Amino acid sequence: MKPTATRRPDDETLADLLGGARGAIDATIPPVAFVIGWLASGELWVATVVALVVAASIALWQWRRGRRPRAVLLGVAGVAVAAMIALRTGRAEDFFVIQVAANAASALVWLVSIVFRRPLLGVVVGLVLRQRGAWRRDPALLRGYALASWVWVGQYVVRVAIFGPLWWSGDVVALAIARVALSWPLVALCLLVSWLVLQRSLPQEHPGIRHPQAA
C-alpha cells in the first residue's frame, strides 16, 4: 500500500540527510597542516609527516565517534597518496594535484549520471532513505534530482577552475587557502542550493522525497 503522506517534510534538508559539512571541514585540516609544515621547515618530508600525523589524529577521533572504518582509512590514504606525490616530484604544489584530478573526474561522473537519467544526488539520497530505485519511477523526483545534480556539477567545475591555475602557477599558500574556502563553505552552499532546486522543482501536491510516487 502506498504512503498517504499529504505534506512534505520541509523542515528536513539535504544537510540533515547527508550529514552536513562535517566531513568537508575535517578534510581541509591535513592539507593546511602540510603547507604549514612546509613553510616552517622548508622540507617536504617534514610537511608529509605533519600532514600524516594530523590526518591519523582526525581519523582516530572520527573512528571513536562511530564513523565507518572504511571511510576513516580512505581519508588517511588520500592524504598519504597526495604527500607521496609531492615527495616524488619534489614540488609542494603537487600535494594538491589530486584535488584537481578528483574534482574534474567528479564533475564528469555527475554529468554522465544526469545524461543517463540516474542523477547521483538521487542515487545517494535514495541509498540514505533505503528507497532503492523507487525514486526513479517517480517522474517528478527524477526530474528534480537531475536539476539539483547540476548544482553539484557546478561545484566541481568551480573547484577545477580555481585549483587548476593555482596548481599550474605553483602558488602553494593560495592552494591551501582555496582548499579551505572551496571545501566546507562550498559544500554547505551546494547542499542548500541543490535542496532549494529540488524542492521547487516538485509539484505542490507532491508528498516529498520520502514518498516517491510511481508514474
What's the average pLDDT? Answer: 86
Would you report the number of β strands? 0
User: What's the alpha carbon Rg, rounded to whole Å?
Assistant: 20 Å
Task: Report on the biggest sheet.
Answer: none
Secondary-structure element order, as H and E? HHHHHHHHH
Q: What fraction of residues sit in β-strands?
A: under 5%
Pfam family, one: DUF3159
Keywords: Membrane, Transmembrane, Transmembrane helix
Protein name: DUF3159 domain-containing protein
InterPro entries: UCP010219 (IPR016566)
Task: Characterize the structure shown.
The two termini are 15 Å apart. The chain has one domain (14-201). The protein has 215 residues and is mainly α. It has helices at residues 14-18, 22-41, 44-64, 69-89, 97-115, 120-128, 139-169, 172-181, 184-201. The protein is built from 9 helices and no strands. It is 72% helix and 0% strand. InterPro entries: UCP010219. Keywords: Membrane, Transmembrane, Transmembrane helix. The chain crosses the membrane at residues 44-63, 70-87, 107-129, 141-168, 174-198. It comes from Nocardioides luteus. This is DUF3159 domain-containing protein.
